[in-house]
Amino acid sequence: MEIILMGRAAVKGKAEGEALVTRKPISYLGEINLATGICIQARHDWLGKTISGKILVYPHGKGSSGDAMRIWTLAKNNKAPAAIINNRADSITVEGAILANIPMVYNLDKDPLEVIENGDYVNIVGNKVIISKSMKCLH
Amino acid sequence: MYLTSEEEKMLSGEYGGLVQESMKLLVKIGEAHGAERMINIKYANTGIGVAFMMMPNGRQLVEEAVKKGFKTKVPATLGQDLVDYENWELMKISKEFVTNCRWIMEMSKKMGMIPALSCAPYEIAGMDWYPLGSSISSVESSAVAYFNSVMGARTNRDFAASFFAAVTGKYPEFGYHLDENRRGTHLFETKVELKDKTDYSALGYYAGKIVGLDVPVFEGIKTPKTDDLKLLTASAAVGGAVTLCHVVGVTPEARTSNMAFGNDAPKEKITVTTREIKATYEELSTDTEGNVDFVWLGCPHASIYEIQKIAWLLKGKKIHKDVTLWITTSPFTKSLAESMGYVNEIRHAGGVIICGTCPILSGGCPGPTYAYAHPEYSIGNCAVDSAKAAYYVKPLLNASKVFFGSMERCIDAAITSKWE
Question: What is the pTM of this model?
Answer without folding.
Answer: 0.96
